[in-house]
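Dock 5-bromo-uridine-5'-monophosphate; give full complex structure.
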Amino acid sequence: MSSKSQLRYSVRAQNHPNVLVKKLFEIAEAKKTNVTVSADVTTTKELLDLADRLGPHIAVIKTHIDILSDFSEETISGLTALAKKHNFLIFEDRKFIDIGNTVQKQYHGGALRISEWSHIINCAILPGEGIVEALAQTAASPDFPYGKERGLLILAEMTSKGSLATGEYTTASVNYARKYKDFVMGFVSTRALSEVKSDVTTASEDEDFVVFTTGVNLSSKGDKLGQQYQTPQSAIGRGADFIIAGRGIYAVPDPVEAAKRYQQEGWEAYETRVGKQ
Ligand code: 5BU
């Protein structure tokens, strides 16, 4: 695991060149949470209700905005207001995967206006380097109004059974992240990837990518459609900086209690990892 994962979020925040990552680490330390809730509900009312109730316990809310049956201006304004109220970031798990010209239009503008409200986005690298270059280019354009408060996670591994995002694919993800590090803030992966030796670019001394790990659940080992779960302790032990839980939180009788439990377990695992400093 990278030496950076042994550091406190606050120390990583101080040294980090990326404004959004700095903010993310500051939120984690201030609220004592590394929980990202995957709010996979299907109406705006449910989404905003969850965001408001869970807001105090999470660092990030992850959305699949295209599963809402009633996406509208109200969704955007509501979510944005709650992100400010509770001090969390928004991560649209859109998993862009197309040629550069298309993803630029899917990200900025379009029906979902993702760049307007989502701090964090992600992409798969099946199309090759061009997808990362295209998204980075959009965010760096002088016409892009959201400044530095936007970032990209590369989907370097997946949690589903038989995932093909392994080996060379994962190595290429690390390559592209190093090459476009101004916009790429880290990875969605099941472990820290800083030890991966990429062939194009070598890791710089100060490299500090953020690791988000999905498939976190305290009471289940998986679902009937190939999802595979691990616990907060196991994810954080393997290098996750932020744990992502969906059904383990929103689909139980008391989501607030569940969020508190994931918050506590995630934070204890983090404290154990960084030790006394
Ligand atoms: P769950 O209810 O905790 O299983 O939800 C997991 C969420 O994370 C869901 O929104 C998935 O789309 C998402 N996910 C995942 O489960 N595994 C992955 O490898 C990636 C995303 Br990338």
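Observed: The chain is about 40% helix and 15% strand.
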